Amino acid sequence: MQLKRFVDKVALVTGGAQGIGYAVSQRLLSEGARVVIADKQGEVAESVAAQHGKKAIALEVDVREANCGDQIVERALRRFGGVDLAVFCAGITGMKTWLELSVEEWNHMFEINLRGTFLCLQAIGKQMIAQGRGGAMVTFAATSGHGPRPDAAHYGASKAAIIHLTRSVALDLASHQVRVNAISPGIVKTSMWEGVTRDRSTLQGITPQQYEERAISNVPLGRATVPEEVAGLAAFLLSDEAAYITGQVILQDGGYTLKVS
Ligand SMILES: NC(=O)c1ccc[n+]([C@@H]2O[C@H](COP(=O)([O-])OP(=O)(O)OC[C@H]3O[C@@H](n4cnc5c(N)ncnc54)[C@H](O)[C@@H]3O)[C@@H](O)[C@H]2O)c1
């Protein structure tokens, strides 16, 4: 049966042009939401939105811009008249030993992953408070935010901070009936994962295929996941079925952290 949990809802998805954000946008649209697809890849976002007629709109935005959240809210208000749901998928990764990280690389990681998430949460949180009809948001952390991984100190630190930010914001917004939860995915087959595989296999002197097989062999459920599966969890967390869940960080990692934590 096709679920229709988001009819009459307006959703904002950052990083919605590809990967997990794309799958989240598609899932929310299929369940009846109207969606603002915000991404720095403006043309890709436009072509995704164009497939959904008046129900989706694209916005080219870089979450490094200080007013990125305001831009997204303004677009949603002008086109759809409000905002009920938001998912923050815009993010980057990078594999490098912390001993060789430059301050520019450190700042770049935090500017997009943490500051970008903060700016969007703040602008949308303010709008949801002003509307007075509640809302729900989902941020993206990662297993690296729960425990150290080789060559990922800056990525992991930015994701650990997103976990703390999510819980703090959830506490502050609860009295406004705005819920905020985080998803920490494990291996999700997207271009980000391809980049991780490429970088880590180079660092370890093995082929990308060998790296991927090794990584998957560490997952108790014995497989990677796909963006659509992550989108299903995001949709659940945004829906009324999760109405009593806030400030939680859901590890969707096939059991990976059971072995390493
Ligand atoms: N793929 C995985 O295995 C995995 C694992 C754990 C966590 N995550 C997290 O999930 C989220 C989505 O990852 P993905 O695999 O879909 O990545 P992806 O690289 O496929 O997609 C990321 C999207 O974010 C957009 N983006 C990047 N920088 C931006 C910026 N400055 N402003 C606006 N948009 C920007 C990109 O254009 C792209 O559309 C990320 O936060 C990532 O850290 C992914």
Structure description:
It is a single chain. The protein has one domain (10-186, 225-252): Rossmann fold (3-Layer(aba) Sandwich). It has 261 residues and is α/β, with parallel strands linked by helices. The chain is globular and about 55 Å long. The protein has a 7-stranded parallel sheet with strand order 3-2-1-4-5-6-7, sandwiched between helices. The chain has helices at 19-30, 42-50, 68-80, 103-131, 153-173, 191-204, 208-217, 227-238, 256-260; strands at 10-14, 34-39, 56-60, 85-88, 135-140, 178-185, 249-252. The longest helix has 29 residues, at 103-131. β4 (85-88), α4 and β5 form a beta-alpha-beta unit. α1 crosses α8 (227-238), α3 (68-80) packs parallel to α4 and α6 (191-204) crosses α7. The mean pLDDT is 97. The chain binds nicotinamide-adenine-dinucleotide.
Rg of Cα set: 18 Å
Order of helices and strands: EHEHEHEHEHEHHHEH
Mean pLDDT: 97
Small-molecule components bound: nicotinamide-adenine-dinucleotide
Brief rundown of the structure:
By secondary structure, the chain is α/β, with parallel strands linked by helices. The chain has one domain (10-186, 225-252): Rossmann fold (3-Layer(aba) Sandwich). Helix content is 48%, strand content 15%.
List keywords for this structure.
globular, 261 residues, Rossmann fold
Break the fold down into its secondary structure elements and pairings.
Layout lengths: L9 E5 L4 H12 L3 E6 L2 H9 L5 E5 L7 H13 L4 E4 L14 H29 L3 E6 L12 H21 L4 E8 L5 H14 L3 H10 L9 H12 L10 E4 L3 H5 L1
Parallel strand pairs: 1-2, 1-4, 2-3, 4-5, 5-6, 6-7
Helix pairs in contact: 1-8, 3-4, 4-5, 6-7
This protein binds nicotinamide-adenine-dinucleotide (NAD).
The site of nicotinamide-adenine-dinucleotide has 29 residues, from helix 1 and helix 6.
